[in-house]
Amino acid sequence: MLTAKVRKFGSLVLLLPVLAGCGADAGGKVAKEPEVKAAAEDTTPVTLRVFIGVGIEDKDIQLLFVDPLKKKYPHITIEPVRSGKGTTIQELVAAGQAPDLIYTWNGGLPTYQEFDLLYDMTPLVTKNKTDLGRFDKPVMETLKAISDKGELYALPFTIQLNALYYNKDIFDRRGVAYPKDGMTWEDAMELAKKLSHKEGTVQYRGLGPETIVRLSAPYNLTYIDSKTGKASINSDGWRRVFEMAKSIYAIPNNTTPNLLAYNEKPAFLKDQNLAMLGTINLLPQLEDAGNKGLNWDVAQYPSYKDRPNISGIVDVHVMGITKTSKYKEQGMKVIEVITSEEVQTLSARATARISSLNNKEIQKQLGADMAFLRGKHLEAFFQSAAVPAAVRSQFEDINTEPYKAVMQSFKDFFEGKDINTALREAEEKINLFMDGRKK
Questions:
Q1: What averages of pLDDT result for each successive group of 10 residues across the chain (439 residues)?
Q2: DSSP label at residue 314
Q3: pTM beyond 0.85
Q4: Whole-angstrom Cα distance, residue 55 to residue 161?
Q5: 164 with 300: CB under 8 angstroms?
Q6: Whole-angstrom distance between the N-terminal and C-terminal Cα of the chain?
Q7: Which segments of the chain belong to CATH 3.40.190.10?
Q8: Which of 1, 106, 339, 426 could connect to 409 by a Cys-Cys bridge, CB 3.0–4.6 Å?
């Protein structure tokens, strides 16, 4: 628990007597104007605890958070806290050790509302004259929509954009042309039909959409209405998504071994038996995969025919100050540093993270310092748009009971159950869970 106290200093202004006449002293000399010093910045050393609620490696925390902060504000130190035994957000709050800052994604913010940790940063934004116009507009719309009152709980650090990754060797062995920008899911499925096959005991799958949740993003669907707390899964939008996912997985030799699993990344990165994978930014993970033989490139994320060039919802990693923190001013300085053009450029060049700033020059530098990305079609990330995300219930996170109900309903549908029955059963399970939360 933090024990350092912050002392605030005001400037001491000495008021000198004003002499009559033309401001001359007794000797007839003109008196100098008194010097007024600006308020001294409080440089009392403090340590801020940052709860890491979304994926980022320790080396990147050091490069993008710790080092730039120490350079500009040497009196401010940050201490990352990862969720683990004894350090879940629930346990930290219960122990009176709530963090000062939270690093999460926009869809994860409602989870922290349950613990009354979200803090409206608007007064600090105004006080520090923070220019919100620097940030991507749909991102800011999404963040402000999380609060019914338009409060701002966090500022964006990096944007997750979707793309279609492909294994060039599988394409080459089958004599199939590589994916192109502008494809629909139907186009991608036609390629998958040519690529899905078995070689001995190895099954090579043509296309992995990762999960039905990822596939639902272009329609901005939720399976719980955040306002009513009722299931929203039984809808025409989810029917379209279920049918698309079934069409993909029903391609001969393209069925994933586990329809309940979220993660198809290992099949692409490690096993290297998946020809195409549609997912978020994997660039930081591709160096190791490339060293282990993965010959890859990237194309624009496929679109639904009725949602051309829409890859999904705004998915952004953010940092916010907690309501309980004693160091809100210092927390704002941390966020100021990591969202600066200097750090955003470093982040793009050295770690291939997509900047949250509305700055095309930074976008052009994506992965510029990473040799393994040279020659890759990184422009593909910027060919599609993301729509402002609907406010999500905290119970839409992976491994919650509602999430499991949705995944099970798709598995049941894929294995032959009527789609209306599958969706209705998911709806009933979700409502039963949500009703239980109210008791």
A1: 38 33 40 47 92 95 98 98 94 97 95 94 97 95 92 97 98 98 99 97 96 95 94 97 98 89 90 98 95 98 98 97 98 98 98 96 97 97 94 87 96 97 98 88
A2: -
A3: yes
A4: 15
A5: yes
A6: 33
A7: 46-160+315-367, 163-312+390-438
A8: 426
